[in-house]
Design brief:
Length: 448
C-alpha cells in the first residue's frame, strides 16, 4: 500500500512538471514575425505580424518622448524593424528594450511629436495572420486652412468631384486568384479618373487616398466636404466565394440608411452649423433649430439620392459599352461611404477581382482607361446638363444656343413669350423675312 501510494505521488509529480512545462511553452508561444510601417497624411500606422493574438499594455515617457509597449508572453527579438524614412514625421525610430519579465517583449517608439495612440489587435484575414496595430495621430494642431468664402455667382468655379479609392494600407480589400489586391486596382483606376477630371476645364478632382495607406470612412467624406465636393465616387472591385460571377455594378444609398443617417445628424447639434450655415448662430430656439435642420436634411438627402441615382444610371449605360455588367440597374445598399446627406455619391464596382479572367483585365492599363473614361463621361454629362449656378459649366450652358422644333399651333409671338425674348430677336437670330413658321422647323432661340 505504501509503495503504491509512493508511485501515485511520483506519477502526480511527473504530471505536474509536464503540465507546468507545457503551460510555460504555451504561455510563451507568441512571436513577432515582422514589422511594417504605413505612411499616411494624417497618421502613421505600425503593424506587428504576430503568431497568435497578442496581449499588450503601453505607457509614455518624456524627455525624450517615447511610447513604450509591452507584449506579454512574446520572448526574443526575432523581427527586425524597418528604417523610418522622412515621410513618417511622428516616429524617429522603433527599437527593442529590456522588459520587466523575460517572457515578454518591450518595444520603444522614439517620437518626434506628441501623439494620440489608437492600438488594437486584428484577427487573421486574407494573407495576414494575427496583428497588433498602432495608429499614431499627431496631437499638435493642424496648420490653419484657408476659409472658403461664400461662392459668388460670377466666380465660374469648378465642379469638384471626390474620387475615393477603396481600401488601402493594412486593408487590402478582396484578393484575386493570382494575388492581386483590390486596394491596388482601385487606386490605379481612381488616379486615372482624377486625371481625366482635372484635364477638363471647369472640373477638378479630390483624391482622399493617393497612396498605399488606409483612410477612415468618415475621413473620406470629411475631406470631400472640406474641398466643397459636388459629387463623390467610390471605386471598388467586387468578389465572391466562387470564381464564376463577373461584371460591374453601381450602388447608391438605400432609403433605410438615408433615414438612419438623417436621424444621426439631427441628434448631433455640432453638425448643424455645417448644414445651416449662419442660421445656426441666429436661431436660439433649440426646437426651431431641430425643425429647420430636419427640413434641410430631408431636402438635401432627397437631392443627393436623386442625383446619385441619375448619375448611377448614366455610369451603367457608359460602362456597358466597355465591360460586362453584373447588374444592369443601380443597386441600393447601406454603405457607409455613401451616407453624407450633402454630397451626392455612388459606389462603382469595376468588376469581380475573384474571377480569373476579370482579374487579368482589371490589371491592364487599357481596361482601366476604358472604365475611367466611362465614369468620367457620365459625371461630366450629368453636370453639363445640371450645372450648379455658380459654376463654369453653368456659364457655358447660358452661352450655348437653344433650339426649338416648331409644333402645330405655335407662332413667333407664342415662342417669344415662352422663352422671354422679342419677336424681332427671334426673326434676326433665324434670318426670317416674315412671321410665317412651318411645322418641324428648327429655330435658334437667342438668350434673353
Amino acid at each position: 500500500m505504501t509503495s503504491d501510494w509512493y508511485n501515485i505521488k511520483s506519477l502526480f509529480r511527473v504530471i505536474t512538471i509536464v503540465m507546468m512545462f507545457v503551460s510555460v511553452n504555451l504561455y510563451a508561444a507568441n512571436k513577432i514575425d515582422s514589422v511594417r510601417v504605413w505612411p499616411s497624411p494624417e497618421s502613421t500606422r505600425v503593424v506587428l505580424d504576430m503568431k497568435e493574438k497578442p496581449e499588450y499594455s503601453y505607457f509614455f515617457l518624456k524627455n525624450p518622448l517615447r511610447l513604450v509597449v509591452d507584449i506579454k508572453s512574446t520572448p526574443g527579438r526575432a523581427a527586425t524593424f524597418p528604417k523610418i524614412d522622412k515621410k513618417h514625421q511622428l516616429i524617429k525610430k522603433i527599437r527593442y528594450s529590456t522588459p520587466k519579465r523575460k517572457s515578454d517583449t518591450r518595444l520603444v517608439f522614439e517620437l518626434l511629436a506628441p501623439v494620440k495612440p489608437v492600438i488594437f489587435s486584428l484577427a487573421p484575414t486574407g494573407p495576414y495572420s494575427d496583428r497588433l496595430v498602432f495608429d499614431l495621430y499627431s496631437k499638435e494642431k493642424p496648420k490653419a486652412q484657408t476659409v472658403v468664402k461664400s461662392r459668388d455667382i460670377s466666380s465660374d468655379r469648378d465642379i469638384v468631384v471626390a474620387v475615393v479609392a477603396g481600401h488601402g494600407g493594412e486593408d487590402p480589400g478582396s484578393i484575386g486568384p493570382s494575388g492581386t489586391y483590390e486596394k491596388t486596382i482601385t487606386l490605379q483606376i481612381a488616379k486615372r479618373l482624377a486625371a481625366k477630371i482635372n484635364a477638363e476645364k471647369g472640373m477638378s478632382a479630390v483624391l482622399p487616398r493617393t497612396g498605399d495607406y488606409y483612410v477612415k470612412l468618415n475621413t473620406r467624406t470629411e475631406r470631400a466636404r472640406t474641398k466643397k465636393a459636388d459629387f463623390l465616387i467610390s471605386i471598388h472591385a467586387d468578389a465572391f466565394t466562387s470564381p464564376q460571377p463577373r461584371g460591374g455594378s453601381v450602388w447608391v444609398l438605400s432609403l433605410r440608411r438615408a433615414n438612419s443617417e438623417i436621424g444621426k445628424w439631427i441628434e448631433n447639434r455640432e453638425q448643424h452649423s455645417e448644414l445651416l450655415g449662419g442660421a445656426a448662430d441666429v436661431l436660439k430656439d433649440t426646437q426651431q433649430e431641430r425643425y429647420l435642420a430636419q427640413a434641410l436634411l430631408d431636402m438635401s438627402m432627397d437631392h443627393s439620392m436623386k442625383t446619385g441615382f441619375e448619375v448611377a444610371e448614366d455610369v451603367i449605360a457608359e460602362m456597358r459599352k466597355v465591360t460586362r455588367m453584373h447588374k444592369k440597374v443601380p443597386q441600393a445598399a447601406s454603405l457607409a461611404v455613401l451616407k453624407s446627406p450633402d454630397i451626392p455619391s455612388i459606389l462603382v464596382e469595376t468588376g469581380f477581382i475573384s474571377n480569373p479572367a476579370e482579374e487579368r483585365l482589371l490589371k491592364t492599363r487599357d481596361h482601366q482607361e476604358k472604365l475611367a473614361t466611362a465614369i468620367f463621361k457620365s459625371v461630366k454629362g450629368y453636370f453639363k446638363n445640371n450645372p450648379p449656378e455658380d459654376s463654369y459649366f453653368a456659364k457655358l450652358k447660358k452661352e450655348q444656343p437653344r433650339f426649338h422644333k416648331v409644333r402645330s399651333g405655335e407662332s413667333l409671338s407664342v415662342l417669344a413669350s415662352r422663352y422671354g425674348v422679342t419677336v424681332s430677336s427671334l426673326k434676326k437670330a433665324n434670318k426670317l423675312s416674315s412671321n410665317t413658321l412651318y411645322i418641324g422647323q428648327n429655330l435658334a432661340i437667342p438668350r434673353s
